[in-house]
Design brief:
The chain is of the alpha/beta class and about 450 residues long. It has eleven helices and 15 strands. Helices cover about 40% and strands about 15% of the residues.
């Protein structure tokens, strides 16, 4: 990254910045902002964002599997609670009763959207808490009930499930991790064999957050039900993209979060089928039927319920649109970039996620190059971005990913056909530049 500072006559400087990918920017700013630029990856984030805004009239956000913007309908539903019906739902006075009524309306709205009973809906503080409560809470309750101490998960689960199941193992339980092939298949015979061994819980996600493949939840549910074993599914990436109905697929627990479906961050739901015992992880109150004590976030619950309702109601129209956009991007990248590998291509996939592997490219340079061109994508789960090592999902499906840049594009409500064309062209340009310079992972 090269930069030149020229006096601007107003106490600042005119910055001429030559990017690593053939891009250049000229703008006004302080030379102090560039004091930490070192090499190709040293551009400060705040300056990068500013420059991107100058260069591009419309940045393109294709990281909707990481998080989504708040919908107007969700905001409008939350504001009256934040500003008016702010009472504690546990209070007996008018303010408390109004807040309680709002909370129960939200609970009913979620239940109706997924085919549940309102008493089976528990509001929590996001997908991670929902997953942890399901895995650890159900494992603890099953051990108390029958001595079952065995949890079974798939190798491509979200870290919230994998690490929760590892915690059960650390506390003296047992854990089995089922392999998943590149075609998204699970060895159901292996599952059947392990189900006879005192299993407390099976957890298998409906849609994988990194690759978008759908696991065979219906078949898994048939086998767990026949054995009387509880089944939990993380449906965070599924709601609004594929059918999610607990009255159709007999899962015992199901996790959702708001911010993946244009709701607020820090909002979530755990569905627990009536009769399934889950032990709480928090103590100190009787809220949420004593499973999740603490004063309820009524505004968050209302916003969450509206987001779920909209996602479910709009799925039949929106999912095919997203799939068409995803398929178009897949075709354009495959046609224009040599040796692209589409991860999970032969598996049943949700419509919004495209994960591709591009050989002979440094993944961080690729993402940085797209970012500098005003395009947001990711290398996989945002929850793993601060960790070390590659994607556990791709390694489980394909083995070592050395020399391969994995990029996840996830389309959403704001994505247009024009966006897809520009993203494909820009990705090809950035890849060509990196390859020509010999900068490989």
């Amino acid at each position: 990254m090269n930069w030149t500072g020229l006096p601007s006559g107003n106490g600042g400087a005119r910055l001429v910045i030559e990017g690593a990918f053939g891009t250049s920017f000229t703008t006004l700013g302080s030379l102090d902002m560039l004091s930490n630029i070192q090499g190709r990856a040293g551009l400060p984030k705040r300056l990068l964002y500013y420059l991107v805004q100058l260069k591009h009239m419309r940045p393109i956000y294709l990281d909707n599997a990481a998080t989504t913007p708040l919908r107007d309908e969700v905001r409008d539903a939350m504001l009256p609670i934040l500003q008016g019906d702010f009472g504690n739902p546990s209070s007996a006075h008018t303010w408390g009763r109004r807040a309680s009524a709002r909370l129960e309306e939200a609970r009913e709205r979620v239940a109706e959207a997924i085919g549940a009973n309102r008493r089976e809906i528990y509001f929590v503080r996001g997908g991670t808490e929902s997953d942890n409560l399901a895995v650890i809470g159900r494992a603890a309750a099953a051990f108390e009930q029958s001595g079952a101490d065995h949890v079974v998960v798939t190798a491509i689960e979200h870290r919230a499930v994998l690490e929760a199941s590892a915690r059960v193992e650390e506390q003296g339980g047992r854990r089995t991790v089922l392999s998943v092939g590149s075609d998204g298949r699970i060895d159901l015979d292996a599952l059947e064999a392990v189900l006879a061994d005192g299993v407390a819980l099976v957890s298998a996600m409906t849609v994988n957050n990194e690759v978008g493949i759908q696991l065979p939840i219906e078949e898994i549910a048939q086998r767990t039900s026949a054995r009387g074993v509880s089944l939990h599914t993380d449906a965070v990436q599924a709601i609004g993209k594929v059918p999610v109905r607990v009255d159709v697929v007999p899962v015992d627990m199901l996790s959702l979060t708001g911010h993946k479906i244009y709701g607020a961050k820090g909002t979530g739901v755990l569905f627990v089928r009536e009769g399934v015992k889950v032990s709480p992880m928090l103590f100190g109150g009787g809220q949420e039927q004593a499973l999740r004590p603490g004063t309820e976030d009524v505004a968050g619950a209302v916003g969450m319920s509206v987001a779920v309702e909209l996602a479910a109601n709009e799925r039949e129209v929106e999912a095919p649109r997203l799939e068409a956009l995803r398929d178009d991007l897949q075709a354009r990248l495959s046609d224009s970039i040599e040796s692209v590998r589409v991860h999970g291509e032969t598996a049943r996939r949700a419509p919004h996620v495209l994960n591709v592997g591009i050989p002979n490219v440094d993944p961080q340079l690729l993402l940085a190059g797209l970012d500098m061109e005003g395009i947001a994508a990711s290398a996989g789960s945002a929850c793993e971005s601060g960790g070390k090592g590659g994607s556990h999902v791709l390694e489980a499906m394909y083995g070592a990913m050395e020399g391969m840049a994995a990029v996840r594009f996830s389309v959403g409500r704001s994505t247009t056909e024009g966006d897809i064309v520009r993203v494909a062209e820009t990705t090809r340009s950035v890849v060509d530049t990196i390859r020509n310079r010999g900068e490989v992972s």
